[in-house]
Amino acid sequence: MNTTLTSTTIMRNLAAAFTLAFMLLLVGSVSAQSVQFADNAAIHTQTSDQFKVAVFPVQNSLTMKVLFENPAQEKVTVMIKNSNHEVVYKKEVGKVAIFNGKFDVSKMTDGTYTMVIESKHQSYSNAFSVETYQERIARAL
Question: Secretion signal: which residues (predicted)?
């Protein structure tokens, strides 16, 4: 009877070890993308009497969050430009007093971009990057 318990215990341990090894093998080949500002800051802000802006990447996603106050209610345009200064995304926000939006950058290739938010009298810009990275792990063979 002790032999059966020992065999069962060994089989369970082997099954658990193989399951863990298989999961680590799957995780080891996973790649992901991230968005971050060129200066590694978590959030960027600009404040003036006419215009208040906050821009930040949403953690663990390929989304940029943009918030701004536009007390003068001037027409505002949000643009994303690539490293060649070409506009790759443009949205006319209009004459809103407050804007709270998200911008999906998952379709953009790896590289450096600039978020530009401008009205007739105010402008905000800041560089950010989209990067693909691959996790590396050690695993038993």
Answer: 1-32
Name the residue ranges covered by the structural domains of the chain: 44-130
pTM for the predicted model, two decimal places: 0.64
Q: What is the pLDDT of residues 67-117, one digit of tens each?
A: 888 888 889 999 999 999 999 999 999 888 999 999 998 889 999 999 999
Nearest-5° Cα angle at 98, 87 to 93: 30
Measured CA to CA, the distance from residue 16 to residue 25 in angstroms comes to 14
Both tokens of 78, joined, read: 């949000």
> 56-74, pLDDT tens digit by residue?
888 778 888 898 888 888 8
Q: Which CATH class is domain 44-130?
A: mainly beta
Dihedrals phi, psi of 110, to nearest 5 degrees? -55, 140
Which are the contacts of 57, defined by CB distance < 8 A and separation ≥ 6? Answer: 34, 35, 36, 37, 63, 64, 65, 128
Q: What are the Cα distances from residue 38, in Å, to 6, 8, 41, 84, 119?
A: 57, 55, 8, 16, 24
